[in-house]
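Researcher: For the annotation table, I need structure tokens for Selenocysteine-specific elongation factor. Please keep the output clean. Sequence:
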Amino acid sequence: MTDSSDIRVRTLNFNVGVLGHVDSGKTSLARALSSTASTAAFDKNPQSRERGITLDLGFSSFTVDLPDHLRDSCGDHRWDSLQFTLVDCPGHASLIRTIIGGAQIIDLMLLVVDVVKGIQTQTAECLLIGELTCPRMVVILNKIDLLPPAKRQSAIEKMTKRLHKTLENTRFKECPVIAVAAKPGGPEAPETDEPQGVPELMELLKRQTYLPRRDPDGSLLMAVDHCFSIRGQGTVMTGTVLQGTLAINDTVEIPTLKVTKKVKSMQMFRKPVSRAMQGDRVGVCVTQFDPKLLERGMVCSPGSLRTLQAAIISARKIGYFRGSLSTRTKFHITVGHETVMARVTFFGLHAATETPASLPDSAPCPLDTPFTFDREYLYQESYVTGRGEASTGPDREQWALLEFERPVTCPSLCLVIGSKLDTDINANACRLAFQGRLLEGFEDKAYGETILPRLRICKMKHKEGQVERVTDDYTVIGRSLFKKETNLQLFLGLKVMLSTGEAGVIEGGFGQSGKFKIRVSDGLRPETKLLLSSGSKKKGKGGGKVEPGVKEDEPRAESQPISIHLHFKRYVFDPHKKMIQS
């Protein structure tokens, strides 16, 4: 009998995500492929059985001999078998949160397509999630038994051609497409009907495998998807190790609950093991823990994960999203294994400091320009597509501040997806809006006072008024720049520019109606005085009324107004709302 450590060393785990539109046959396909069902597999949820759709991530596995191409690339490892762990993700539209959570732990994606219906809304969303999270994909044309035998082959070839056309601008260009009937006759058909094409699919899967990057170093991070109790044993948390290593007697933390527990025992698909590492699917038994407190979440090395109130992410719009990405709007944010509402503020670089973006919008968000609190950024009313004035070409580099409605626990640099999941689930529209990577997280509940003032996001302001009159060669009276109730003391000393080219400084108020004095230290130009003078003479000669107390020949500028321009910037999170001029 092989001991647990030998099992661990000799079996390579490879995670395969099974995604697709609702009722495309994902669970039937996973069932046909699998030999061992895990505790979470095949729709244990009562609501799921009743509705006939997958409501949660289901996990199952099958083991094959290690393919030769992997044996040659194993190096010093002594693997002799390959375990496929199938992650059956739900296809129902309202459950996209779960799909995103599942997609982050897969090495290869199976996109299941109903051969009769073709690409549907959720199929396209699953494809997008795959592009963000997974390096390889195989497309499964399922339910070929529903096609008339005489037309079956031509229909398969036609659908394959359409799929390759759809995929040609994605990272999955020229990926394999294979036709199967995972459950001939449908869900109600007797089990005696043999699946069609499944042996060929298993061979294709073996050829598509690669040696996943498995790093045992670093702190533990495990994505838990189910939690249940076993009488006399304790509570079992099942999930996938995303980072680091886990061993019996290790102490782990459940950060959302601020609870630490010691690992009593572990299993991989009902086989006891003493150790698990990145990429492994494992059940971890702890004692004195109520399973109702944790259905899905993160388990980690004590103190290694932070619970965030807000975060800064790199941001890139998903091209198929047709809505606008407006600042101050709330989006569903999926980060780690959680989905939470957050208010979003978009910001970017000043035009002079932009760097060229070269990646398509489906690629993982770039980190070419690292975020730093030392740099000044420009506030954006919305995400900017294209590059400034041009609406074509790659998007400029942008970031977003996320302010969560409730705290979230997640690792740094993890994938973040923003969605509009409140969109009508029957609408033929992509609900995935933007994606990025978590760059900075704020744990302090008072982050608005302690951290955001350090975030130098500025709004560029421009106010325009008019010269009403000139009082001497160095002073003019302006109007229409401020409202009557504006506190002019805040603007004293700010520089302004006349449309005739003179620079001046706001010296003080004039009267009670929002008018103000401007001091032009270098004096008004002769042509400016002439313009003001000619304007007032025309007014006087025309018999217009003259204000009481003002001589008829006093220079005025009502007929040919000279404009006053005030430019300044304000930092959005500056508690003092100071106006700054360069």
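Researcher: And a one-line annotation?
Model: The first helix runs from residue 4 to 10.
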